[in-house]
Amino acid sequence: MASSFIWRRRALKFAALALCAGAIAPLQAQDAKPIRLALIESMSGPFANTGEAVFRNLLWAVERVNARGGVKLPGGARFLQLDRYDSKGQNEEALSALRAAMDDGARIVLQGNSSATAAALIDAIDKNNERDPARRVLFLNYSAVDPILTNERCSFWHFRFDAHADMRVAALMEMMKDDKALKRVYLIGQDYSFGQSVLRESKRQLAEQRPDVQIVGEELHPMGRVKDFAPYASKILASGAQAVITGNWGNDLTLLVKAAREAGFNGSFYTFYGNALGAPAAIGDAGIGRVIAVADWLPNVQTPQSEAFYQSFRARFPKPSDDYVHMRMQLLIEALAQAIEKAGSVDTVAVARALESADVTLAGQRGRMRAEDHQFQQTLVVGVMDKQGSPGVKFDVEGSGYGFRVVKVIPAERAQMPTSCKMQRP
Predict the structure, then answer these.
(1) Res. 3 pLDDT band, cuts 50 70 90
(2) How far is CA 209 from the centre of its chain?
């Protein structure tokens, strides 16, 4: 895990630089052993860009906590330390990384860019925590949005900070209800648990809320293995679809929308992740008014707090290619710091119990953890792609010249959904 060692040193260097910039930290934080956080994510392979984006977000959040002196505990403040482990996009590699992280002393694991991987980690952590109480681990999930993870397969050791797929579909339906001209849609997704759940829930909610809309195509494709989406784009075009609903992410989204544009598709894309990682640049002018994305937050949320938050991130990571900031990942680290301080220790069970009542606010965005199923509740927004400089589009995405105008704000109380979780607590 040579890369893990290098990034551990860099994370501590960043913390030291932040402290030198003016924040005053107790000597105990500088001398005490840091609290290790293990990020298990794809840092190589077809989805490496998504793993790197996560790392930047979490690193920035960790730096913020450390710059204000670290996490305050009865024995003295302690810094957070973010270590990264490459899952290579494979479940077995992720499980191997989990074992390595535990051996390195980490008791808090972070992952999200695959619901299948998240499910495997939950199973492994459940078994470990029952078998080896002295090495219990918490799992903080920022992006694995298969609804089952906080429903039938909920776990006391797992906390999700993103809205799950059904919640995101419901937010997109808020837009589709207003589009009375929409009559034909095409469903396409990655062939694994998350992609399947997006298509399943889209069909259910369309039947309930837009029974006049016909589903003219439904497609699942291998995740991360399709290099040419032209055949899929041809099917979309031939179907007569006016819109595509997709949960695709990473290169699977970028290549899909690029192929659709090149095929001459002029319909709308209703997406979970169409607002970054190359998608806007790939779509170009064809996406103006047509690409819709749902998120917990978007850079063009028009409040002074939001604008300052976004500009701070861009100052920290000025390269256009690094422009993908997630509010929920910042709230995750803030909630963790709050829980550790409330617990008064780093004991896994005590921190988990404190995290169940987490209630944090940053840059005007509030989030609270629902103890019943460990599903974070927060405001969701829906944005529509437009040219930078258009009304409501002050900021673009990744230097593309295109950004997302916020057109729907869905309060947390309306975004929440019921749960079937029957949690077993220690």
Answers:
(1) very low
(2) 27
Round to whole Å and give the CA distance between 177 and 179. Answer: 6
Give the torsion sign (CA, 373, 379, 384, 389). negative
- The token pair at 282 is 């790939």
State in Å, rounded, how far the first CA of the chain is from the last one. Answer: 33
Which residue from 275, 228, 283 is spatially nearest to 249, judged by alpha carbons? 275
In this structure, are residues 409 and 297 in contact, taking their beta carbons and an 8 Å threshold?
no
SS3 label, residue 117: helix
Does residue 22 carry a pLDDT above 90? Answer: no
Cα angle 416, 422, 426 (rounded to 5 degrees) comes to 115
The token duo for 111 is: 């992952």
Torsion sign, CA atoms 206, 382, 143, 226:
positive
In which element (H, E) is residue 243 found? strand 243-246
* C-alpha torsion angle, residues 28, 31, 33, 34 (rounded to 10): 80
Per-residue pLDDT tens for 382-393? Answer: 999 999 999 999
pLDDT surpasses 70 at 2: no
Q: Residue 257, SS3?
A: helix
Which pairing describes strands 365-370 and 375-378: parallel, antiparallel, or unpaired? antiparallel
HEC secondary structure over 287-332 = HCCCEEEEECCCCCCCCHHHHHHHHHHHHHCCCHHHCCCCHHHHHH
Determine if the pTM surpasses 0.85. yes
Cβ atoms within 10 Å of 294's Cβ, excluding its own: 28
Residue 393 in contact with residue 386, Cβ under 8 Å? yes
Q: Which residues pair with 292 in a beta bridge?
A: 270, 384
Starting at the edge strand found earlier in the chain, the sheet holding 402-410 runs 214-221, 184-190, 243-246, 268-271, 291-295, 380-387, 402-410
